[in-house]
Amino acid sequence: QLQLAESGGGLVQPGESLRLSCAASGFSLEGQAIAWFRQAPGKEREGLACISGWDKMTKYADSVKSRFTISRTNAKNAMYLQMNASEPEDTAVYYCASRSPSTLSQRICYLDGTFYDHWGQGAQVTVSS
């Protein structure tokens, strides 16, 4: 069964750091474009960060640029989102996503959810004092 599973969510205070993990099972993330998204209550899903399959392109949303970092570890078949300088506006359910290898996804990535075909179940992150 192909599956992505997020972990590491929780409650943090403003200004603190948090790292989300996403483990893949049933398939390899190597060569796949990967991304993180979030959805806050009453808001549309927002693309945060992505890496192309060959790691040649990395893209960030303006709202998280310089605060969040996306990465992957092929040896652990996992991806991560390092969140620094958290803000209350970061409160949301966070999702990891990947796209099966293709000539396109190996070179580029998009912060558009329709580009991805595997999704995790989501992890709640709450930033509050």
Order of helices and strands: EEEEEEEEEEE
Count every helix, treating DSSP H or I runs of 4 or more residues as helices.
0
The computed structural class is mainly beta
- Looking at the structure, what is the overall shape? globular
Mean of residue pLDDT values: 95
Largest sheet: 7 strands, mixed
Low-confidence stretches: none
Proportion in β-strands: over 45%
Please state the oligomeric state of the protein chains shown: single chain
Cα radius of gyration in angstroms: 14 Å
In total, how many beta strands? 11
What share of residues is helical? under 10%
Task: State the end-to-end CA separation.
Answer: 39 Å
Question: How would you portray this structure in words?
Answer:
By secondary structure, the protein is mainly β. Helices cover 0% and strands 46% of the residues. The protein has no helices and eleven strands. It has strands at 3-7, 10-12, 18-25, 33-39, 46-51, 58-60, 68-73, 78-83, 92-99, 118-119, 123-127. 32% of the residues are buried.
